[in-house]
């Protein structure tokens, strides 16, 4: 009985501890506040033939403050085409974007339900723009940029290099619209 109470009593206080977390942004990351919320995504991709095609799905992307305002947790929800079966399957991903004040950089970790791999990016930010650079989940060097922040929208683009970083080509673009 004593052992059960020893385990049970701390569990009773856990919700209070979670709710007590300060989710206001730290001053050095407050300029990312426009991302906080839930968004509908309209995406276009550049085909190997150089033609921009609109994605038929409208993914949802949500952002929230985490880790006492020193991080942003975001969730991606969409469907993708399974090349083996041509069926539409769920695609979910999570980013944890933590700000390292000492290094003055963001550390970003991405994981999704298809590759099951953690992908690391480093980022910088300033009012109006957030940039990330790293190797994406398929092993390709990538640069990602969030920009044109407005109260109910923002833009995003991903660039790849095909010549070891000499030049970069935008291969994916998104327009995000805030959900009511």
Keyword list:
single chain; 180 residues; mainly beta; Lipocalin; 10-stranded antiparallel β-barrel; 1 helix; 11 strands; disordered N terminus
Per DSSP E runs of 2 or more residues, the count of β-strands stands at 11
Q: How much beta, percentage-wise?
A: over 45%
Strand order in the sheet with the most strands:
1-3-4-5-6-7-8-9-10-11
Q: Average pLDDT, to the nearest integer?
A: 86
CATH fold-level name: Lipocalin
The shape is globular
Q: Find the structural class using helix and strand composition.
A: mainly beta
In short:
This protein is mainly beta and 180 residues long. The chain is built from one helix and eleven strands; from the N terminus they run H-E-E-E-E-E-E-E-E-E-E-E. The protein starts with a helix and ends with a strand.
How are the SSEs ordered, and which strands pair?
Layout: H1 2-19, E1 37-46, E2 52-54, E3 60-66, E4 71-81, E5 88-100, E6 105-112, E7 119-126, E8 129-135, E9 141-150, E10 153-160, E11 169-178
Antiparallel strand pairs: 1-2, 1-3, 1-11, 3-4, 4-5, 5-6, 6-7, 7-8, 8-9, 9-10, 10-11
